[in-house]
Amino acid sequence: MQRLALIGFMASGKSTVGEVVATRLDVPFVDLDRYVETKTGMTIPDIFVTLGEQRFRAIESEALRAIGRDMQCVVLATGGGAIVHPANRELLKASFTTVYLRAKPETILDRLKNAATQRPLLQVGGDPVQRVRDLLMQRQSWYEDVASWIVDVDHGSVEEIAQSVIETAIGE
User: Fold this and answer.
1) Model's pTM, two decimal places?
2) Domains of the chain: which residue ranges?
3) 3-167: what fold?
4) For this protein, what reaction is catalysed (predicted)?
5) 102 labelled as ligand-binding?
6) DSSP 157
7) Burial of 151 by CB count in 10 Å (0-12 exposed, 13-18 middle, 19+ buried)?
8) 90-119: per-residue pLDDT in tens?
9) 13 is in an annotated binding site
10) Does 57 appear as a known binding residue?
């Protein structure tokens, strides 16, 4: 295995599943959002408030390039919006085996019900439920375009989903 990136909407399980996959494969795990926080010394919500989404996306792109350049073997959990920029989509397709953790809006909303206040993109006003549906609809084709494989995550435990990712993307 070389580089495996997990993509998908917020709360699709990228970080949780990614940690399990990396542990099972005995390779490093990197959460792109935590990487950005470490490099900037700021939390993602603070970056959004202080610098704005556009600057956050630029920092995120720079981090993605660095990981793709510097790490030969890694399981990477991207942020849900990492696929927004075309350059990121191209980098993910060129440098990673990419698995889209696909979740239905209902699954995402159920997982976010207690975490909405920590998600900057849900803090823009209006109905968070509609915001999730709108963002998911906007990003769906990008996730599918970037994906080498798709794993549905609406059912099954984290362990089962991780095993599906490994079997699908790695063939073990």
Assistant:
1) 0.89
2) 3-167
3) Rossmann fold (3.40.50)
4) shikimate + ATP = 3-phosphoshikimate + ADP + H(+)
5) no
6) -
7) buried
8) 999 999 999 999 999 888 888 877 654 455
9) yes
10) yes
